[in-house]
TrEMBL record:
Organism per entry: Mycolicibacterium lutetiense
Name of the top EC class for this enzyme: transferase
Pfam family, one: ACP_syn_III
Organism superkingdom: Bacteria
Stretches assigned to the Beta-ketoacyl-[acyl-carrier-protein] synthase III N-terminal domain: 116-194
Molecular function via GO: beta-ketoacyl-acyl-carrier-protein synthase III activity
First and last residue of the signal peptide: none
Protein name, as recorded: 3-oxoacyl-[acyl-carrier-protein] synthase-3
Length: 345
C-alpha cells in the first residue's frame, strides 16, 4: 500500500514553554522518599513547565509556528487529517482535537485524538496518518502532541516533594505528513500489550476515584515492584519493535543513521542505545535540558537533531518508544528528506 502511495514526514516543529527550571527547584522541596535513589527518578538538570493559564491548544498553536513559517499557513489550514495526543486533556470528557483544529484554522475531514499511544503517540500518529493518506483519505495530515503534565500534575504542592516529580518536563510538537516520496515513512511497527494496561495507576491519599473531590493531590502510583517491571518491559519492548522495523527495511540496527526515542530516564537511553549497538552520537536526546517529555520526546528530539545538523537528506531515522507501564510500543523508520532551514536538502 505505502509503496504505491508513498507517505512522508516532511517536517516538524516544536515548542518548549517558559524558562528552564533547574533541578535545584525540586531539591528545595524534596522530602524523604523511599524511591529517591531509584534509577527511574534521577533528575535531569533542567526541564520546562507549562504556564499556569496555558492550555494544550495554546501549546500546539505555538509548536506549529515553525512549520507554518517554512511551508505557509495553507499547509496547515488545508490539511485533511488532524491527529492529536494530549497528556493531560484540558477537559476530561473529550480530547483537544476540535479546539486545536479551530485554533489552527483547519476544517479537516478527520480529527482523531489518541490516548493509548502514550510516549509512543507520535509513532502511532504516523501509522494512522500513513494508513489514511495511503487509502485516499486526503493528501496532508498534521500530528499535534502536547505534553503538559509536568507543570500541572507534578508541580502540585504536595506532589513536587516526591522523587518522581523532578523528572517530567513539558513541551509540544507538530508534525507534517504528506502523500509524497519526499521524506518517506519506510515502515512502522506498533504493538499493544494489553495485559499491562492496568499497571499504571493514579493514587491519592486518602484514596478516591480520580474525578472525586478530596484533599489529597494525585500522582502516579509507583512502587519498587512496579518500577522493576516497567524497567524490564521498556528494556525489552523498544529494541524488539526497533529490530522488527529494521529487519523489514533491510537495515542492521547498528547502521541506522539516527536513533530517536522517548526519554524516561538516562538508564533507558543507555540500554536502548547499547541494544542497537549504536554510538551515543547517533542517539539523540534532550533529557538534561527537557527531562521526560513523554509523547513530545520523539518529535522534540528529532527537531533538535535536524536543527543542529545531526541528520542530513537520505539518512535513515529510526523512532521508537514504549508507553505507560509497557502496554504499548512502537517504532517507525523514515528516510529523511532534508529541511531547507538547516541546510540538509
Amino acid at each position: 500500500m505505502s509503496e504505491n502511495n508513498p507517505v512522508s514526514l516532511i517536517d516538524l516543529s516544536t515548542y518548549l514553554p517558559g524558562d528552564p527550571i533547574s533541578a535545584d527547584y525540586y531539591a528545595g522541596f524534596a522530602e524523604t522518599d523511599e524511591l529517591a535513589e531509584n534509577v527511574m527518578f534521577r533528575a535531569p538538570r533542567f526541564r520546562h513547565h507549562v504556564g499556569p493559564e496555558e492550555t494544550a491548544i495554546d501549546m500546539v498553536e505555538r509548536a506549529a509556528a515553525g512549520v507554518i513559517e517554512r511551508h505557509g499557513a495553507d499547509v496547515i489550514t488545508e490539511a485533511d487529517v488532524l491527529i492529536t495526543h494530549t497528556q493531560l486533556p484540558d477537559m476530561p470528557f473529550y480530547g483537544g482535537g476540535g479546539g486545536m483544529a479551530h485554533r489552527l484554522g483547519m476544517k479537516p475531514n478527520w480529527v482523531i485524538d489518541l490516548h493509548n499511544g502514550g510516549c509512543a503517540a507520535f509513532v502511532l500518529g504516523l501509522k494512522v496518518a500513513r494508513t489514511l493518506l495511503s487509502a485516499g483519505e486526503g493528501r496532508t495530515a498534521v500530528i499535534a502532541i502536547a505534553q503538559n503534565s509536568a507543570g500541572q500534575v507534578f508541580d502540585q504542592q504536595t506532589i513536587r516533594r516526591k522523587a518522581q516529580s523532578a523528572v517530567p518536563g513539558d513541551g509540544a510538537a507538530v508534525g507534517l505528513v504528506t502523500l509524497s516520496d519526499e521524506s518517506p515513512i519506510l515502515d512502522i511497527e506498533c504493538r499493544t500489550y494489553g495485559e499491562y494496561a492496568g499497571d499504571m495507576t493514579v493514587v491519592m491519599d486518602p484514596p478516591r476515584k480520580w474525578w472525586q473531590a478530596g484533599p489529597g493531590e494525585a500522582c502516579i502510583g509507583f512502587t519498587e515492584s512496579k518500577i522493576t517491571k516497567v524497567l524490564a518491559r521498556g528494556n525489552r519492548q523498544v529494541p524488539e519493535v526497533s529490530y522488527s522495523v529494521c529487519d523489514r527495511i533491510g537495515v542492521q540496527p547498528k547502521d541506522i543513521d539516527l536513533f530517536v526515542t522517548n526519554q524516561p530516564n538516562r538508564v533507558f537511553l543507555r540500554n536502548w542505545r547499547e541494544a542497537l549497538e549504536l554510538p551515543s552520537e547517533r542517539h539523540v536526546d534532550t533529557f538534561d535540558e527537557c527531562g521526560n517529555l513523554f509523547a513530545a520526546g520523539i518529535p522534540v528530539n528529532l527537531d533538535r537533531a535536524v536543527t543542529d545538523g545531526r541528520v542530513k537528506a537520505g539518512d535513515i531515522v529510526l523512532m521508537a518508544a514504549f508507553a505507560h507501564a509497557g502496554d504499548f510500543a512502537g517504532a517507525a523508520a523514515v528516510r529523511w528528506g532534508g529541511r531547507g532551514d538547516s541546510g540538509n536538502v
